Amino acid sequence: MAIKNQIKQSLIIAFWFMILTFPIMVIKVNTIRHTIDFRWANLVGVGIVTFFASMTWNYFLRRNEDQKKKEMDDDIPLIHRLLQNDRFRRPFLGVVAAFFLAYPFVFPMYHTSIMISALVYVMLGLGLNIVVGLAGLLDLGYVAFYAVGAYAYALLNLHFGLSFWVVLPISALLGTFFGVMLGYPVLRLRGDYLAIVTLGFGEIIRIVLENWDSFSNGPRGIGDIPAPTFFGHQFNQENTMVYIYFIVIGLVLMTIFFVNRLENSKIGRAWIALRDDEIACQAMGIDKFKTKLTAFALGATWAAMGGVVFAAKTSYINPMSFTIWESITILCVVVIGGMGSAIGVIAGALVLILLPEYLRAVSEYRMLVFGALQVIVMVFKPDGLIKSVRKVYTFNVQEKAIHEQTNT
Amino acid sequence: MRWINIALGVAVAGIICFFAVRELLIDPMYFFELFLGGLTRGSIYALIALGYTMVYGIIQLINFAHGEIYMIGAMTALIVASVLGMWGWNTAVIVILAFVFAIVYSCAYGFTVEKIAYKPLRNAPRLSALISAIGMSLFLQNYVMLAQTPEYLPFKSLIPDFKFWEPFAHIITSVEITIIVTTVIVMILLGILIKFTRIGKAMRATAQDKVMSALLGINVNNVISATFVVGSATAAIGGVLIACHVGQINFFIGFLAGLKAFIAAVLGGIGSIPGAVLGSLVLGISESYFTGYFYSEYEDVFAFTILVIILIFRPSGILGRHDAQKV
Hints:
The complex is a heterodimer of chains A (408) and B (327).
Chain A: H1 2-20, H2 22-26, E1 27-30, E2 35-38, H3 40-70, H4 78-84, H5 86-106, H6 109-134, H7 142-160, H8 164-186, H9 191-211, H10 213-216, H11 237-263, H12 266-276, H13 278-283, H14 288-314, H15 324-337, H16 342-358, H17 366-380, H18 397-407
Antiparallel strand pairs in A: 1-2
Chain B: H1 2-26, H2 28-59, H3 66-86, H4 91-118, H5 126-147, E1 153-154, H6 168-171, H7 174-196, H8 198-208, H9 210-215, H10 220-246, E2 248-249, H11 253-268, H12 273-293, H13 299-313
């Protein structure tokens, strides 16, 4: 009986969607040649897809509710359990390290280049994870800081001939500076205003770069950006790719190290507390504004460093690389991977960036799928694919007793 | 601090007034032309901003997909108008049907979006609902782009062109007059709906206190759906009108229009309906003067700058009320 009702309900929903999508999915008008194209196949497709989608949607909604009743919320993701197991951890990390070390030598340059962009996204994702995942500040203009880094390298190199290694720390500082500059006025506001203001800031940076010709060369962009050198030695093109690859690996490792240390530090715990309950957190004596500003500025620092690597890798930048889509892609990496979870963000970046690159045929559906995934993840799995696990502090009674004995 | 703010405000107002009077004396015709252009722009913003402000007033969510609802309204009108036009129907019937379809479909989309993306997240943290809204906006944009075309489509104006007597013929077109008049009518109707009807009263009650109104027998879910439907309808009207005004549309028009309308809603005080209208008119007119007298390429930068300034100095907007956060 229940099944029958569900099928009936799903049929109604499928019918509703067929009507809803009719003008846009079925009719296609060519105003120049004056022809109307009725694509009836689409109508059938929409009906079938929405029928099954609504069945699964309802099934998962019900399951979610059942789970909430049972309070089964403390399951730890498989990967975390495996990583906590010492016997497994060493070999696993060894395999991962060997894979990434051998990668550029095994695969041709094209694949190395794609992997570099994916790793840059890992860096950006981890940086944004500090802002969105840990501190709970929705930043939709993250790409602005990425642009700051990229243009800092391109312009400082063009005008002053500064090299990659000099610009990298400078741009990190510039990123921090811009983060503080933007964060200072807007972080006093409530969370959802922040999203819009940062979105606006991202667009402002892009529009300024596009229109201020004498500064940024406008939409034509800046070309001939040199690749990084190895103690003054310039590699040939193929080796440069490998070299940049290892630089990015190094930066990613550094990022992971920093993020890990930050997460369990005093300030990291303050971020998480602030995300979970602002008022309670303030009552505990945490300076809300300063804590938020640190998160925002640190996130910006990583974005700027990612920008420098991006400019060095592509050797050409223009404002079109820094549109709102870029920000949204990075946000998707964080949200879908798992907000606040470093492993989730890394996995999310690798999957979300590598898959569309290799599945060229479906890459035009990329943004459509990203949008749908954002909604689905938020509705069914708000913690993302690999959810973060809070560090558990155990109070070891035995050890303490021994400690006391030796003292006395 | 308070005195500094007031002094600053007076100084800025004085400078603006000085320039306005100077420009008015130099070229009054151009000045009025910009004013009417701004009024048109502001009316469109108002039609979209209403949806933002009503939804925000009730569930405290920035409905990111609202701009897309507006785009879908314009797109539906375009499709219906061109199909009927090719079938050789009467122009008046086409205009009416295009408007009706745009409104009906926008309402349906607004309703569906709420049921899919926001209703399951009613009790989730606000960040989740916001991310879900962004996902919905992204999805709808790409859905229209893939199903139709990424190119700009020419939109044949639905409003017949007629000439005014000189000297007004130069500075205002029939489309602009229609936009302003329609907006006024819609505002009056909406005012009546909110003030005097049952559903309007329920909406106001729900905006004030959801739990209490549920206790008093108001179906909160239905009221929220109704809010989305009403907001989508006004956005659809705005979408069709602006498409007539600009003459072309594509899948991306909702993004910027939505953002601007949101800025207008914040400017007026989000959650307040008269505030949204006032904020839209202020934003539209000041934008029009900025592009007319200064840099037209920095139009969007100007709007965002206004947003930031307002949020710093008066976060509750012109007409908004400041309410304390509840624990």
